[in-house]
Design brief:
The complex is a heterodimer of chains A (about 250) and B (about 325). Chain A has about 250 residues and is of the alpha/beta class. Chain A has helices at about 35-55, 70-80, 95-110, 125-135, 190-195, 235-245; strands at about 1-5, 10, 20, 25, 35, 60-65, 85, 110-115, 140-150, 150-160, 160-170, 170-175, 200, 210-215, 225-230. Chain A has six helices and 15 strands. Helix content of chain B is about 25%, strand content about 25%. The chains are: A alpha/beta (about 250), B alpha/beta (about 325).
Chain lengths: ~250, ~325
């Protein structure tokens, strides 16, 4: 079994979000970068668990980014995985990124491609579906459980108001979310080992981005909370009914 | 040239998020001076022609039962075929769970720029720019769509449904449907409840409620005002409430008109899932709880004291004994 895990570099959840150059650029100063949580906790860790069950499994990690993405991919390798591929390109268009991943996937002949359910910066939930279409493979989105039996995967996925269980033969692309696996912390052996694992750099294929960011905008600041005394709950209900008009 | 809106359905009924998509698509078509048409996949019990009240003139119906279950691959092909045959230049979907499975595939198939999670109509003065949430709702991006064919998936509950008069012409669409590669073996759905992603009012509980046995008052309050119930990560992780009720960064992301948070401190990860709510009310005994900074209304007090009082007051308001 050969698994490709897609890894994205994102600002930490608690990072301050600010923009410069007439709101066209995300201010990176002071921002701590992390592996996109869904890629790390669910996609990567589930792949590692599959390898622990079947040691013949091969895990490759892929990221599309400039050289400054390398600490993130090394961090991912410290958790697990046999080697990593960085496609040397800087783009925020989902189709451009998905096209690069699909190109590597075609060459690698992977049985499984795992992504996180979305990145916490662009929140598009797009890469998995695009890669699947480009490879003409089935796509199971928002998976909460993944089991493998030979070449058949049994997957639970979230649907509106519940879950469904499905079966699909590999190759398949899966986007992963909570439930797939539990977050792990890399140990010293993993961190040391990651330094010598192969990190290949591939040049991007020529693809036109379909979208681009024109500008960013911060939401208007909240007016501030209107506090009601705990002894006067009736006043809160009145405000919600008459002022906010929500009940 | 037309706008094609995808109508999502489940269990024979059109989803509320599709009414929003239809309204959005109809308004966009008006803005572009073109026709609004829709595509429906699978069989439904609802009156399809009546969806014309949301402003679409024609509905392409692929009444094939294989499509009664969402299959990203089959849906993509069917929608793309209808879009191509009908000459659509913009496709509109809801950014709900179906939209997340289908829209990116459509984008790759048609080489059409996708804006996923749009929160407003495009600015078409000199281009095609769509606003969407980024950085887990902490900011917005205005996205240029640089392709002739465009796809917009709209964030649920971010666009007001407008229903008027009118019926749509329903035409049978000729589309070949392959057999699905993904076989659904079991479905586990909570029935008789509004899905959290579509709920207009949400009452949510956190660790401050101390245990699952105390959810009676949360459910009673939610029932009185017609709200869905949700919970924080800690609560879902402790299995006090089912996983699908979990909202926050790792759970669901929602944007109801009212989010009433009881005993939830409001960590940044939780806010990431709920900060698009129009009105946020926080009940927490800790005056330093970070949630108060993101709230519109709040009560500093013990949930076990405040919530029963609130239930009594809502009963008075609703005239319920």
């Amino acid at each position: 079994m050969k698994i490709l895990v897609c890894i994205s570099k994102t600002p930490d959840t608690t990072a301050k979000i600010a923009f410069a150059d007439n709101n066209t650029k995300f201010v990176q100063e002071g921002v701590q970068w992390i592996i996109n949580p869904y890629d790390e906790w669910y996609a990567l860790v589930r792949a590692i668990e599959l390898k622990e069950k079947d040691p013949s499994t091969i895990i490759h990690l892929i990221t599309v980014g400039a050289a400054d993405t390398e600490p993130i991919i090394r961090k991912a390798l410290a958790l697990g995985g046999d080697e990593a591929i960085r496609v040397n390109a800087d783009s925020h268009d989902s189709f451009y990124i998905a096209s690069q991943i699909a190109e590597i996937a075609k060459q690698g002949g992977y049985d499984l491609i795992f992504t996180g359910k979305e990145t916490i910066d662009y929140n598009g939930s797009s890469i998995g579906g695009m890669v699947a279409e480009l490879l003409d493979q089935p796509y199971v989105s928002l998976a909460t459980k993944f089991e493998l039996n030979g070449t058949t995967a049994t997957i639970n996925r979230e649907i509106e108001g519940g879950e469904e269980t499905c079966e699909v033969n590999v190759p398949v692309v899966v986007s992963c979310q909570k439930g797939m696996a539990e977050q792990r912390i890399p140990n010293m052996k993993g961190i040391m080992g990651a330094r010598t694992k192969p990190l290949k750099v591939a040049e991007p294929v020529a693809v036109d981005a379909l979208t681009s960011v024109a500008s960013f905008e911060l939401p208007p600041a909240k007016a501030g909370v209107k506090l009601v005394d705990a002894e006067n709950v009736g006043e809160l209900v009145r405000l919600l009914h008459e002022e906010a008009k929500v009940i | 040239m037309s706008v094609l809106i995808f109508i999502d359905s489940a269990d024979g009924h059109v989803k509320k998020s599709s009414f929003e998509a239809l309204t959005y698509g109809a308004q966009l078509a008006k803005q572009l001076g073109t026709a609004a048409e829709a595509v429906l996949l699978g069989t439904v019990a609802d009156d399809v022609a009546a969806l014309g009240k949301y402003g679409v003139t024609k509905i392409h119906h692929v009444a094939n039962e294989t499509l009664n279950h969402v299959d990203a691959q089959l849906y993509t092909k069917a929608i793309a075929d209808v879009a191509t045959a009908s000459g659509a230049t913009v496709i509109v979907l809801s950014h709900n769970l179906t939209g997340k499975a289908v829209a990116p595939r459509l984008s790759a198939r048609l080489k059409a720029g996708l804006v996923a999670g749009a929160v407003g109509l495009p600015n078409t003065a000199g281009g095609f720019v769509v606003k969407k949430g980024v950085f887990s709702s902490k900011a917005f991006a205005h996205m240029n769509v640089n392709t002739a064919m465009k796809i917009i998936s709209i964030s649920p509950n971010s666009f007001q449904t407008v229903a008027g008069e009118g019926t749509a012409e329903v035409v049978a669409a000729q589309v070949t449907v392959d057999s699905p590669k993904v076989k659904i073996t079991a479905t586990n759905k909570v029935t008789g409840q509004v899905p959290l992603s579509e709920a207009e009012l949400v009452v949510s509980g956190g660790r401050g409620l101390k245990g699952p046995e105390n959810w009676g008052m949360v459910e009673e309050l939610a029932g009185l005002i017609g709200a869905a119930t949700a919970c924080s990560r800690a609560v879902a992780d402790a299995h006090w409430r089912p996983h699908h009720e979990h909202v926050g960064q790792t759970g669901g992301s929602i944007a109801p008109n009212l989010y009433l948070a009881i005993g939830i401190s409001g960590a940044i990860q939780h806010l990431a899932g709920v900060n698009r709510s129009k009105v946020i009310v926080v009940i927490n005994k800790d005056p330093e709880a970070p949630f108060f900074k993101a709230a519109d209304y709040g009560i500093v007090g013990d949930a076990f004291d405040v919530v029963p009082k609130m239930i009594a007051e809502v009963k008075k308001l609703k005239g319920v004994a």
